[in-house]
Structure formats: structure tokens, C-alpha cells
Amino acid sequence: MIIGGDKEELSAYLGRKFDSTDELGEQVRLDLNEPHMVTVCGKRGSGKSHTLGVMMEELMTLPAQARQNLNGLVIDAMGIYWSLQVQTPDTDLLDGWDISPREYPVKVYYPAGLEEQYEEIQQYFHEGFELYPSELSVEDWLYLLDIDETQAQAGLLSQVIEQAEEDFGQYYSIMDLLDKVEASPESANIKDALHRRLEKAKNWGIFSSSGSKIEEIVEGGEFVVLDLSGAGALPWNVRTMLTGILVKKMYNKRSFDRSREEVKKIKGEHTEVNFPLVWLFLDEAHLFAPSGHTEPSTAPLVEWVRQGRRPGLSLVMATQQPGALDNRILSQCDTLIIHRLTAGQDSDAVGDKISELHDAQTISHYMQQIPKAPGYAYAMNDDAETIVPVKVRPRKSWHAGDSAKLEEFLESP
Description:
alpha/beta, Rossmann fold, 2 domains, 13-stranded mixed beta sheet, 13 helices, about 15% strand, globular, ATP binding, 5'-3' DNA helicase activity
């Protein structure tokens, strides 16, 4: 069966149906032909990240003609999806699933300023990325540097940014801003305070006058991992700001390209994709779009889920706390994959979504039926008439998301 569509060649092999005897039945597949907003939820250790990895693998095994028109991108805050490049060593787990071990051609980017940190593992981490400082507004900088708009530093920051734009256009660096601060007639105390904050931002290593172009990162036919796990030196608001900027860039590029495609379609002309359709993967999604307060990535993600279907933008989110996810995003989800949940607030959030879709049963009913082992889930879609019990298939590539154990570091006798 195919959840959310009807074209098998453009669908993902998610797993197989299970029943009360744990017998495995027919394949369960997810549609990849149309844009979807997918939420994968479950408590820690239930298999959420594994499920995301399976969907990534399936995206990369679509027919070549389809694959060349889309891009998969995962914003990886945990540092586990680089391992798509390595085939699974657990080949015995694949028995009975009609799949074989394989590695996938993934491009892994990391913050360019952390190049030394990644040097030892550059076999799997390929290229640094940077942003132009000009991609942030004055308000963004005030937020990142923790400066109140009523402080004198705020006025000085606005002045030096304006001066840098006049001198360099969009191609200025933080060093250029520091030079402008030094040249300012403002008092030494105010200059020193702003200088310290800008120096800290320079050391984050993500800003440059030669920033990475989104068209070079997000190309058709490729899968990209944006690894933020080594960015421990980056404050969380910097990571969410970075995510928000990238999401906004992809949305704008793809929306414009869709308008161009529609004009050509009306004229009866052959249409080619300039900027690819995007499948965006986001683990620990509640940290990027939390309920109760706003992160820099919140508004771009809300716009993505509300308006992204027309330009062909999909989002696959994983969270162990669906109750902590901004409801504006959860409410736009058309496909839900539920692993084991226990917390009341999180079960309630998912239960509300189940009721909204079509089912009369409570979430507790399904949680009582689901086996405790990792990998079991219930899947549903807006268009489906039933909620499907599924055991997610094993990964073909290596899953690097397992917990570290002391036994790994013991020498063999």
C-alpha cells in the first residue's frame, strides 16, 4: 500500500505492516511524488532518527529522471546523517526485507570556521559553508549580539552596517564592521562594548564576505547534510538563525522558479527545473520551532509548511516532544508517523491531530497496541481511510544514531 499517493515508482519503501502476532505483511510505502509535510514523533530511542534515515535513503533511490529535479537537505544538529555514506555493517538485520547494504553519495557541509575541528574526519565531511553578514538585518544582529534596541550600541551598529553597505554593497565582512567601529567618533566605552560582541561573532566562523551561494549547496540530483553538531561554540540562536536564513532562501528561490515554470506551461513550452524541488529534513524540530516562544527559524518554517506545496517544497520533521512544537506547523502536517509516546502533553498533541484527520480511536489505544521494541509505528495521511501499523525497514546504510556504550572502547581480549 502507498500512503498519500498511487505511484509506486515515486514512493518510499518505509516498512511492512505488522499485526498482533508480530507477523509482517505487505509493504508500506510513502508517496514522494507530491509535496508533503511529515511529522515523525516518538519518545527517545523509539526509532525516529532511524525512520528519517530510511526516508532519506528512499529519496536517493528514486528513478534518475525524477531525482535530477529534486534536492534532499537535512539540517543535522546531532551529527548522525553523514553515515549515509557508509553501508550498514549489520547485514543480518536485512534478512527477509528484500534489500541490500549500500552507501549513498551525500555532500556534507559544516561551518567553515570549524575546519580544524573537522580536519581529522574530512573523508566524510567535505566542505565548509559561510553566510554573508549582509544577509542579516540590523534587527537580526541585535538579536544575535544580545543588544537592546534602546542601547547606544544599537545605534552604532546600525551606522556601521549602513556605512559598510555603502562601501562594499553586500560583500562586506565582520572585519569591515570592526574597522568601521574603530573609525567611529562614538565614545570608547560604547565602541569597546560593540567591538567585543562583533569579535565573538567573527569567531563563530560562519560569516564571510564570500558567503556560500544557495544554488551551489542545493543542486538537483544531490542530497546534502548540513552538519551543525560540531558547532558547540555556536549559541543556539545562531543555529536557528542560520536555519531560518537557509529556509527563507530556498523558499524564495523555489517560489520564483515555480512561477517561471507555470508561465512556460501556459505557453506550451518545455519546462526545466532551475532550482530543484526540496525535501527538507529536520530532526529535533521542536527546538527550531518551539511552542510558546519564537526562534529565528520559526517564521520561515511556518511559511514553508503553509505555502510550500505550490512550489514543491516538502518538510519531514522528527520530534520527541510534539507537544512542544509550534502548533501552526503541526496543524499543517498531512502525514504522521507515530512511534511510541508516553508523556501526556505529547500524546495529547498527537491525539488531537489523529482526531482532526479521521479516526475515532484515542492515542492511548494505539500506544497500548504498539510493541515496545524500536522501529514500530503507526502511519497515517490526510487522504487515507485507515491508520496503518508499520514496522520500519532496516537501514541499508549505517545508522550512526545509536547511543555510545562503554563496551565500544574496550580492547578485544
